């Protein structure tokens, strides 16, 4: 598999202001409070084929899953299906767990 990796802003290059090409895959790892609804709306508008969502708070990830998988509101509003969700115990003997969810565009 070939991949071109990079960290970029979602909509425009901050140096040139030019619109960036739309990604095939988005990887997001938000803070404990999860993603803002406005960011989820932008992700749905971008319509990447796949979203990989890494979370340190399964409760806020579950909240965001509902928004990502909700019925589309129009032609430029992609809907996603949860393909997999895997807990990762990086901190044994604690209550903390990471969760990796993969969403595919419908």
From TrEMBL:
The keyword Methyltransferase applies. One of its GO terms (biological process) is methylation. Gene3D superfamilies: Vaccinia Virus protein VP39. One of its GO terms (molecular function) is RNA methyltransferase activity. Keywords: Methyltransferase, S-adenosyl-L-methionine, Transferase. Belongs to the class I-like SAM-binding methyltransferase superfamily. RNA M5U methyltransferase family. This is TRAM domain-containing protein. It comes from Ostreococcus mediterraneus.
């Amino acid at each position: 598999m070939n991949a071109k990796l990079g960290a970029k802003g979602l909509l425009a290059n901050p140096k040139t202001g030019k619109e960036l090409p739309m990604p095939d895959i988005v990887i997001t790892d938000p803070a404990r409070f999860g993603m803002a609804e406005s960011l989820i709306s932008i992700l749905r508008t971008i319509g990447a084929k796949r979203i990989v969502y890494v979370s340190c708070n399964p409760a806020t990830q579950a909240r965001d899953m509902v928004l990502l998988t909700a019925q589309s509101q129009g032609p430029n509003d992609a809907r996603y299906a949860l393909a997999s969700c895997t807990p990762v115990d990086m901190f044994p003997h604690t209550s903390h767990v990471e969760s990796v969810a993969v969403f595919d565009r419908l």
